[in-house]
Amino acid sequence: MIKIAPSLLAADFSKMGEEIVCVENAGADLLHIDVMDGSFVPNITIGSPVIASLKRISKLKFDVHLMIKNPERHLEAFVEAGADMITVHVEGNYHLHRLIQQIKGYGVKAAVAINPSTPLSSIEWILEDLDMILIMSVNPGFGGQEYIEFTTRKIKDARKMIDAKGLKVDIEVDGGINTNNIHKVVKAGANVIVSGSTIFSAPDRKSIIRELRERALNG
User: Fold this and answer.
1) Residues that constitute the known binding site for a divalent metal cation
2) 157 catalytically annotated
3) Per-residue pLDDT for 42 more than 90?
4) Do residues 113 and 96 make contact, with C-beta atoms less than 8 angstroms apart?
5) Is 84 a known active-site residue?
6) Which of 30, 62, 142, 190 is deepest in the core (most CB within 10 A)?
7) What letter does residue 144 receive in the DSSP assignment?
8) Mean pLDDT of 138-142
9) Which residues are annotated as a binding site?
């Protein structure tokens, strides 16, 4: 099953609540929330208090992507705010296996993100502990970037690695995905698709989400 996850980063922040309700009613499967601290990545976005307020108005699963330094200090706050899944980066300077166990210890799903130039070998030994891997198809920090073509091969290799181990680990892809390239991303092995500008810039969110699903399967 293909899951569509609108990226909140592309929403109109002046009416964030309305934007979330809109994509929820339009058929989104989950909401991708980028948390940036201006240090791990150049941009600054939102924190746990905002997520907590948004959770009160939405029944969507919250897929919280932490692009921050020292995420272990903030896990509890994001769980309490309503995160259903927490994603951390393999590139962070921390004990990754311990961090994944901490996340799962809070009773939420755990995922690891890898940047475009980071090799898959960096997560090979923790795959069994993950619910999902997030393959970044742009360099993280800003929305609206173009899809980096070589990540398609990385998605294929990730799918082979997961299948070879007989695991049920989702592959999420984030960055520059639209109606023109979603099919090749899904064909390569992804099953959770993050899309920001394509969805939030569309006048009819229900139609664009439906089109993304159709293109994902049929090209």
Assistant:
1) 32, 34, 65, 174
2) no
3) no
4) no
5) no
6) 190
7) S
8) 78
9) 7, 32, 34, 65, 141-144, 174-176, 196-197
